[in-house]
């Protein structure tokens, strides 16, 4: 569990971390080199979930052996499915990270929503739904590993 007390907001007890896959942890279906070490570190504190449309059909092989739960989206409305997934986990105990339009609602629902602008870019609606925006997944996960960075960025 990750405990955060953010001045002007509230205290958080984060138990879940939800990642989009493509555009967030992977580019063109291939895991970003070096990110596995960070996933393993975060899994010591948080339950990690990967939500993906699996556009390239690679999520299972790319995440093999990592301490994560993978959900491949099957509904006709992936935006709604992602938001409902966060609600079911407990939105107040969840941080969500994504970049695409279908990530906007889950970022808005989560206690803390993080948008990433990387190689694939990011949807403007997703950026607007986020509490924080990073331009590198390593910076985003490092902020979770060193949570005072989140406190510094989010305090009022």
Describe this structure in words.
This protein has 156 residues and is of the alpha/beta class. It has one domain: HAD superfamily/HAD-like (Rossmann fold). 33% of the residues lie in helices and 26% in strands. It has seven helices and ten strands. The protein has helices spanning 35-42, 59-62, 78-89, 104-109, 124-129, 137-145, 148-154, and strands spanning 2-5, 11-14, 16-20, 26-27, 30-31, 47-52, 68-72, 94-98, 112-116, 132-134. The strands form three sheets. The protein has a six-stranded parallel sheet with strand order 7-6-3-8-9-10. A two-stranded antiparallel ribbon has the order 1-2. A two-stranded antiparallel ribbon has the order 4-5. Helix 1 packs parallel to helix 6 (137-145). The longest helix is centred in the middle third of the chain and has 12 residues, at 78-89. The protein is globular.
């Amino acid at each position: 569990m990750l405990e955060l007390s953010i001045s002007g907001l509230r205290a958080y007890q984060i138990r879940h971390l939800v990642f989009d896959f493509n555009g967030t942890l992977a580019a063109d279906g291939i895991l970003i080199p070096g990110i596995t070490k960070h996933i393993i570190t975060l899994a010591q504190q948080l339950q990690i979930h990967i939500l993906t449309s699996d556009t390239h059909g690679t999520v299972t092989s790319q995440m093999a052996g990592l301490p994560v739960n993978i959900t491949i989206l099957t509904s006709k409305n992936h935006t709604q499915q992602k938001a409902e997934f966060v609600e079911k986990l407990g939105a107040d105990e969840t941080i969500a990270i994504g970049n695409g339009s279908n990530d906007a609602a889950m970022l808005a629902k989560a206690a803390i929503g993080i948008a990433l602008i990387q190689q694939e870019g990011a949807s403007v609606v997703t950026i607007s739904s986020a509490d924080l925006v990073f331009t590198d997944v390593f910076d985003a996960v490092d902020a979770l590993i060193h949570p005072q960075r989140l406190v510094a960025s989010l305090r009022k």
